[in-house]
Prior knowledge:
The structure holds 2 protein chains of 2 kinds.
Chain A (H helix, E strand, L loop, with lengths): L6 E10 L2 E11 L4 E5 L6 H9 L6 E6 L2 E2 L10 E4 L11 H5 L1 H5 L5 H11 L15 H13 L5 E5 L7 H18 L2 E6 L2 H7 L2 E6 L2 E6 L1 H6 L4 H6 L4 E11 L2 E6 L2 E6 L6 E7 L4 E4 L6 E10 L4 E7 L2 E7 L11 E6 L4 E4 L2
Parallel strand pairs in A: 3-8, 3-9, 6-7, 7-8
Antiparallel strand pairs in A: 1-2, 1-4, 4-5, 9-10, 11-12, 11-14, 12-13, 14-20, 15-19, 16-17, 16-19, 17-18
Chain B lengths: L1 H18 L10 H9 L7 H25 L3 H6 L1 H15 L18 H20 L7 H29 L4 H5 L2 H4 L12 H29 L5 H9 L6 H12 L4 H10 L10 H26 L2 H9 L4 H12 L1 H17 L2 H6 L6 H10 L5 H26 L21 H30 E3 L3 E4 L2 H7 L1 E4 L2 E4 L4 H31 L5 H13 L2 H12 L10 H24 L4 H9 L4 H12 L1 H17 L4 H4 L7 H10 L3 H26 L10 H6 L1
Antiparallel strand pairs in B: 1-2, 3-4
Amino acid sequence: MKKAADVEFHGVVKRYGTVAAVDDVSFRIEPGTLATLLGPSGCGKTTTLRLIAGLEMVSSGRITIGGRDVTSAPASERDVSMVFQSYALFPHMNVLENVAYGPTVSGDPAAKDKALEKLRTVGLEGFGSRMPSELSGGQQQRVAVARALVLEPQVLLFDEPLSNLDAKLRRRVREDIRELQQSLGLTVAYVTHDQQEALAVSDRIIVMSNARIAQIGAPRELYETPRDRFVADFIGDANLVEAELGPHRGSRATVRLGGLEIELDHRGVAPGAVRVAIRPESIVLKKDGSSQLRGTVNKAAYLGTHMEYTVSAPVGQLFVVDRDVSRPIPAGTEVSITLSDHGVALVPG
Amino acid sequence: MLPWYAIERAWGAPALLHAFQGRPWLLPLFLPLIGAIAMRPWSLERKRAGVVLFVGGGVGLALLLLQGFLFRHHNVIDVLPAGKQALVVLQGFLFHPSPSNVDPSKWPTPGMGYGALVAAAGYLMVLCQGLALRGFCRGDAFVVGAIGLVVASISAFVFFPICVMLESAFEGNFVASFFERSIWGVDCLYSSLRCGVAWNTVFLAILVGAGSTLLGLAFALIAARTSFRFKGALRVMSVLPIITPPFVIGLAAILLFGRAGAVSGLLFDWFDIPRSRWIYGLAGVALAQLLAFTPIAFLVLVGVVQGISPSLEEASQTLRARGWTTFRTVTLPLLRPGLAAAFLLGFVESMADFGNPLVLAGNYEVLSTKIFFAVVGASHDQSRAAVLAIVLLVFTLAAFWAQQRWLGRASYTTVTGKGDAGLPVPLPRGLRWLCYGIALPWAALTLLVYATIFVGGFVRSVGRDYSFTLDHFLAGFAVEMGQRGLHFTGAAWPSLTTTLMIATIAAPLTAAVGLLTAWLLSRQNFAGKRAFEFGTLLSFAIPGTVVGISYILAFNVPPIELTGTAAILVICFVFRNMPVGVRAGIATLSQIDKSLDEASHTLGARSATTLRRVVLPLLRPAIVASLVYSFVRAMTAVSAVIFLVTAEYNMATAYIVGRVEAGEFGLAIAYSCVLIAIMLAVIGLIQAGVGERKLGRRETVALQGAA
């Protein structure tokens, strides 16, 4: 396997007419890591991926792969492979011909052997003579992965690879992809709009919104310290609550939230009115607690592994997840509300 | 890059020779090349090298054209004394020769030869390489080169002749002749007078366009979606009319339905229906054109019907849509690009058709024949012909615009990269019978027409004397054993061999140019794409008569001197028939998911490789359509060819028209039979050679059970 390369964007802009699909985007994907481009549809994540592949050309800015400037190099001259959302298997070729396509067109005499090896890697030995239409969705997807791997590219790109699979299969395929990436030490850029998928597979997540980068960070970082409302809301569920920030004391400060007082990292936010993101599982409800913050349960739902509550409180409607399913709180009950010490963060933006 | 230079150097000697023999204007041609080499582009960084090559190629090409046109005739130089002076000054500036060194007797240069062609192509490629290096078209040199090539050849062989033609249109009083009553009059609406020729043409074209689309759809549905037992026969029969020179159908129609025709005679004998001249006029022309153009619609539509992903129809059925509803709400809308293409094709073909109106129109005047008679007839009025041509152009462009509007922006991708395994849905019962009801009588009529053509070759005279004879064939195709082997003594042999040769050269060229253009239009984004598309369509919109005249006007004189050669015939066919390849290619490509191309690119295949390995195999139906069409058209075309043939390069159709004029109907029809037989054989070969598109869908066995 060739050495995995890094991918760097320097102030990349992609315009279609007057509309910017990608607007001044800079980031770096470390070699051998999996980075996810995450965002709602139309945020520019797929365009970003296609810019890496060379299927779109930048309007301005610079792209380097493994230190080489590829800004004006066409797709066929970049050492990058892509797994398409639709898989894009050539319908007139069988599985083996599909997988062997890359080495075949570059005149590699060992094309067939390489293809067979990759088919083995993805667990499709013996399927070589089938036509793509004779495979299930999951198998087609694995053929697409094998085809992308066969050139041992410096960077592998995935465009929403799970969107055509059913839920059970998704988890398995996403684990397969992660395992493959780690065992082969590949640099992978992965586009998805599913935050759970992103959290599960990524080393780093690049959250995009309206053609710009909203935040870059490890999954944990994004989940626990979102930089703005958008990220807080998009990654996992979050209750965004108005609060009052007291004076800074070192890196910490006191936050008044309804009747509650908690201590948080102030993250550079000036004292005054602020917004706090509270994860649903960080809210603790008690029927007979003595908290200063009280509310009423509006809805209660049993989901097997956990309970979900909607609580109306002076700070607003709160969405709560409770792992304790043995003592459900019926709707209509008045509860006291406390917060656990993680999963609560100030949101600067 | 180097091979181009090498070729140019090989050519350099004679041009250099000329340059020092009193034609110094050839010298500057070498400057850009020398300049570009001197800058050593290969040692420069990408963008700078691009600029050098772009400028070098551009200047070279510009100089080439400049010398070609400026030194076209004496009088150009004489008429433009300023230009002459400027040139002399320019030359003086460059080479310091005294003006007397320039020998005026050598100014009318001969037409450009192969050397100039190679040089022009070389400079063009240098220019395109430069553009690609500058990042045009995502830096893809192949794509830029292809665009450059198509643009250059279309400008040379479509726009340039038309410009020459228009020049002559504006020689007279353009406005007055354009709005003349004989063109635009609507007298027929309120009086017994005839309407203008423009309205006649449009009415006929709409009739034929709609009719051929409908008939073609019926045949396509039967061929692709039913278990009809005689599909093979249906296919052959529906292909028959295209392989017939158009006027032959007109001729057969006269033999059948004319006053002395076979059918008219029977009707008179059996039912006492009086013999009439109804066939000479709108009804006759429309009938003959429908017979001629329905197969084209069929060829376009059958590819589209087969390309519709069965899973879409299955999806509709699972959504509780019954067969008919599915057809109406899913299948038919997905057929829209094909339907629009078929209608447009029929519409334009009808407008440009020349053979059938010539034989059948009688008093019903249409533009194409009127143009012909404006030039060939006693009046010999080129500017009037050009004015009529502009009218025709306006209509065709309107048809194109309407098609674009109708198709809208919806996506019609149905062959996606996700292999789908569905079964095509059989036609709903009612629709099936409707299709049979439309197609079968039509097929019977077609059969009758062909029987007439076939029988006509073997009998003394259709309608009068049905005794068997081989005389007509012997007159045309006699072969005798002489002292030195076989002697092809038949009168038709020379024109037949010429025709075959030219059709064989033209067909693959036409398909290649057409499909390349289609691919560029639907897969690449580049500045000026709309203009590019318009250019390719323009050659479609010009009727053959006008093309013929414009080619004669444009290529009778340097810089491109081609009249009287076989090359002009080939070029004429390539650029006249290319739009069919473009249309068929675009219709098929719009159903192939773009990510297939992209997947190929990311796997390291360049554009050329992608085109060859991924796009072309999926384009097979379009390849067959355009190969068949261009070959057949090259064998059967009359309108443009009739102006371009010479004694040395006579074409079969021109020869047949000559026989018809001489009253030798028997030989004419016998020759047509031979042509048809040859074309059938060639079509069979093409279809066997290119093969069916492999989509890996399951076989339609279940369909047959269901139907």
